[in-house]
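Chapter review. Work through the record for DNA/RNA-binding protein KIN17 before attempting the end-of-chapter questions.
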Amino acid sequence: MGKSDFLTPKAIANRIKSKGLQKLRWYCQMCQKQCRDENGFKCHCMSESHQRQLLLASENPQQFMDYFSEEFRNDFLELLRRRFGTKRVHNNIVYNEYISHREHIHMNATQWETLTDFTKWLGREGLCKVDETPKGWYIQYIDRDPETIRRQLELEKKKKQDLDDEEKTAKFIEEQVRRGLEGKEQETPIFTELSRENDEEKGSFNFSSFFFNVDAFVLAFSLGPSALKTVGSTASVKRKESPQSSAQSKEKKKKKSALDEIMEIEEEKKRTARTDYWLQPEIIVKIITKKLGDKYHKKKGIVKEVIDKYTAVVKMIDSGDKLKLDQTHLETVIPAPGKRILVLNGGYRGNEGTLESINEKTFSATIVIETGPLKGRRVEGIQYEDISKLA
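Structure tokens for DNA/RNA-binding protein KIN17:
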């Protein structure tokens, strides 16, 4: 058998060495040398170079331990920051990836005896967020980089600026409502008997001013209490018909058209304003995930609590079991016409109503709002996923 044969001890040893990691008990941290077997480790411990390293370490052992501890901590945190970022991850996953490198610092050369001790130390020092679960310890890196902090401050500043713009828009609309209503004269209502000179004459009523005041009241309700006071002071006022008031009515019509335009813009914004979460307490939902088995698949339950907008505690109607589920595992329940529903998304979010009819072709429904300032309004074309049956 030749020296370069595939099955020679030297060839086998070289292949084992090329794989990288070997047994930890045959590794010398002081000399940073990995021995292949027990005999090699024994020979290394008797060597002159190892004895010199031991003499150096015996002079100041704490200095060497601090050095290895610092190197281990820096390399571990660098891997956690670069590989996982600020995600929450199991500490053992990070550690296994760290020790896969051949030249890593072994934990038995540091001040920490176990990985749990090191994890707790990271939490005490404020380097990571740590929490213990039945599955073990989880860690989350806290990024204190000045550039990252600067980006976060810029995002917060931008959000605050967007909120300020919304407040300015609301104030502008409130001012427009006030200007549209301040020119109206308040007159005492005149009550007369309902009479007609001719029996064949037909009576007629004019409700235009009434509907205008109702719409203005709805808009003022959405803007704030100051606008409510302004609209309330001008509500239910009857005006006399006179030749002089015709010119004023034309001006008011112009103001009314501007107000109507603002109201249409606001209503359009409300109808198009949607969110990516829809869970609400006391609605009936259906479980669509198959991960829980056939016992719960396609079964209905009542949402008892909403956690962080996207998670719900659902109490099953049949068994009474309580489950904690994400909204992606649930879907809304459409009741029969005439039953009560809750609007979950869109401009009418949070309003209760009654289901009037269902359009199966467009997967939409027609409802009648029963709560809030829009009570009695009939809404058509609302999607199935935007409403759900009330418990």
